[in-house]
Amino acid sequence: MGDSVSVDPAILRQAAGRLNGLYDTAGTTLRVTDQAITDSRDGWRDTAATAFSRFTDYLDDRRATLQRQLAELSESLNTTATTLQTQDQSRAATTNQLQSSLDL
């Protein structure tokens, strides 16, 4: 038999909810940041404009990665909570059936 795992699905779901809130907050904050960056775009000239464009592309990629990873982690926590809760309920039902059959 493998090692046992002790997990509280409710705590996993709460953490997933907090990550969803963080996802929303990050999206709002990053939109404001994007606007500030966009507003400064015209101030860059020549090679600095090219470098600034590369920098903003980098920021766009990092923002997308952050939001994707927050969403994936939240989904993973919810999936894990559901899977473990289902397994626990199934094992509890099996244990109850075995106990009932022994009480004959």
Written overview of the protein:
The structure is a single chain. With 104 residues, the chain is mainly α. It has a domain at 11-74. It has two helices and no strands. It has helices at 9-40, 46-102. Helix 1 (9-40) runs antiparallel to helix 2 (46-102). The two termini are 28 Å apart.
For this structure, the quaternary state is: single chain
Please give the count of helices: 2
Task: State mean pLDDT (0 to 100 scale).
Answer: 90
Distance between the termini: 28 Å
Pairing-aware structural class of the strands and helices?
mainly alpha
Written as H for each helix and E for each strand, in order along the chain, the element string is: HH
Describe the biggest sheet? none
Secondary structure elements and their pairing?
Layout: H1 9-40, H2 46-102
Helix pairs in contact: 1-2
